[in-house]
Amino acid sequence: MSQLPSCPQCSSEYTYEDGVQLVCPECGHEWTEAEQAEAEAGPVVRDANGNELQDGDSVTVIKDLKVKGSSLVVKVGTKVKSIRLVDGDHDIDCKIDGVGAMKLKSEFVKKA
């Protein structure tokens, strides 16, 4: 008999299979092994074109971005080197020449 994974919600070890789904009898949570593997891998950050981004990548800004709280604008085509992925709404942490440290949304960049 194979070892079934514990419930991702309540950590109960009494999970059982129901067809292709796994079920926890204690909290009633249902999930598939594919969903659990995806959750364990962590969130995937993608650029505007759908390419997967990773720490250390270089990206290019695809839209003029106003810097909140100042009159600066990050222009289209600005290249940003050595990005760092973080959790949250703005999922890229970087340093832009002439502007300084910033957080960007991945939907406004493309992989360089």
From TrEMBL:
GO terms for molecular function: hydrolase activity. Pfam families: YjdM, Zn_Ribbon_YjdM. Residues 3-32 form the Protein YjdM N-terminal domain. Signal peptide: none annotated. InterPro entries: YjdM, YjdM_C, YjdM_N. Residues 45-112 form the Protein YjdM C-terminal domain. It comes from the Bacteria. The keyword Cell membrane does not apply. The keyword Coiled coil does not apply. Gene3D superfamilies: 2.20.25.10, SH3 Domains. Keywords: Hydrolase. Belongs to the YjdM family. This is Protein YjdM. It comes from Marinobacter persicus. The lineage of its organism: Bacteria, Pseudomonadati, Pseudomonadota, Gammaproteobacteria, Pseudomonadales.
